[in-house]
Amino acid sequence: MKIALILENSQAAKNALVLKELQAAVEPYGHTVYNYGMYSAEDKRSLTYVKNGLLASILLCTKAVDFVVTGCGTGEGACIACNAFPGVQCGHIESPLDAYLFGQVNAGNAVALAYAQNFGWGGELNLRYIFEKLFCTPFGGGYPIERREPEQANKRILDGVKEITHRPLIEVLKGLDQEFVKSTIDDPKFAGLFYPNCQDEEVAAFLKSL
Fold first, then answer.
1. Quick one: CA dihedral 59, 61, 66, 69, positive or negative?
2. CA torsion, points 143, 107, 92, 109, in degrees to nearest 10?
3. What InterPro entries does UniProt report for this protein, alphabetically (predicted)?
4. CA 210, CA 203: separation in Å to the nearest integer?
5. What is the mean pLDDT of each run of 10 residues along the chain (210 residues)?
6. How far apart, in whole angstroms, are the C-alpha atoms of residue 149 and residue 11?
7. Helix ranges restricted to H, 62-135
8. Is the pTM of this model over 0.85?
């Protein structure tokens, strides 16, 4: 699984910490983490939680990654923004139990965490346990196990609803303010991370044109 990490401006200083805990939790399972920033509070590019949602949608819709780990101060804004864009089914995660149940019951493709609210002594431990429980077993296994089939059926229904209620990503990108889109991907590392993994030539060409 290819997993993207995206942090917004208020929590950019925690990038190294979050990346360390995420890699430690997922690499033993053979997953790869792609760090899309922000990398520090001094970055030229400033990601807001709305830009996090757009970037998550770009990465997931083009299959450049399979899963996105994002968040903001409370995790709420990033979660709302992610779900506003096509191709993203994001859960708001506060605990390892949240993480495990989201993966098994909802089987979404993104999570938004709180990196400021209640992030005090032991905050890095909570991150570690969240990531461990989120990725410890394949998604969609069901919980409790006897509820697996109806939960999987509901997931398929939600996927179908999302396809109807959201426009294709390329239409969204063209309809948005172009400076907003450009500022979301205006990072020196973006091209090296994104284009080799992107599976949508039309989206890739459009982003390159910006």
1. positive
2. 160
3. Ribose_5_isomerase_C (IPR022133), RpiB_LacA_LacB (IPR003500), RpiB_LacA_LacB_sf (IPR036569)
4. 11
5. 97 97 96 97 96 98 98 97 98 98 97 96 95 96 95 95 95 97 96 98 97
6. 38
7. 76-84, 96-101, 123-134
8. yes
